[in-house]
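Hi,

I'm pasting everything inline rather than attaching a file, because the server keeps stripping attachments. The sequence lines come first, and each chain or strand is labelled.
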Amino acid sequence: MTRGFIRMLLVALLAFAGMAHAQAIEPMPFANHAQELRFQHLTRELRCPMCQNETLADSNAPIARDLRNQIFQMMQQGRSDDEIKQYLVARYSRFVLYDPPLTPGTWLLWFGPLLILLGGAAAVLVAIRKRSRGDGATERASFEQAPTDNGDDW
Amino acid sequence: MNRLLPFFGFMLLVLLFGFGIWWNTQHDPNAIPTPLLNKPAPAFNLPKLYEPAQKVSKADLLGKPYLLNVFASWCVECGVEHPVLQAAGPTLGVQLVGYNYKDAPDDAKRWLAEHGNPYGLLIADEPGNTAIDFGVYGAPESFLIDAKGVIRYKHIGPITPEVLANELKPAIAAMAHEAAP
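And the predicted assembly:
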């Protein structure tokens, strides 16, 4: 009896889950499967301006739905991905692009990690050279005084 | 000196952390900079809320500056902003144009009847297509548009008394000062 009830409840819940999903991503009359894939790829590269940690593909915000429709319309008009991105950037700024373009304003973002890596490498090099040269002697002396410190503590 | 090195490293991190906090209090990390600032407002042709048969275009509004205020009856923050607009509307020195965004006309009218109507002109964008051209992604948003149809100032979120005094009024004053001589 109770098992039957629980089963019914589960079925009902699953049905509702399906409905919610169908609401989030409404079907669109794509011309072909390739276009559908292109649409999915493009909307995943674009950020929803309203809920900024979601892509246009994932977001259920009204503006995301409107923008998905707009992108769909533009695809039907034969516009390229770049044209669609430019259209959105002209209205919502580069903020909508998940991949920041390489511009003077973003070079630190792109090459910053490399700079930090190079800086770290330089620091390690300097430290190694110091040890292998004269400074090593004093350090060895301090090892003898404090045998518990093996010098590997970082 | 070498013994102080970790301390300096720590201080550097503290400074960086403090700078991050300071930066985020000065800037709204969620605000999207509008690329439309100081550019001509996009063309539009939208029906009036109360007389849907009549349409208002960008060209109709040229010649006099106006504040385009995007609002909707479903928007909670618009209710926060509304009393400010009600009080300041007549003293702004520019026409207040209401832009009813993605709203059922009847809901909008009911909302205005309940909260009051500070707008000199009301246009409706029920499908929300024109709003995309303005880079609108929510309500409320406000655009200050000058006599030549150029967007001079944009505010995302409710116009609070602080925003009104510190940003909007100076922007209107700068515009009026420019037009006067």
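Chain A has six helices and no strands.

If the labels don't parse on your end, tell me and I'll reformat.
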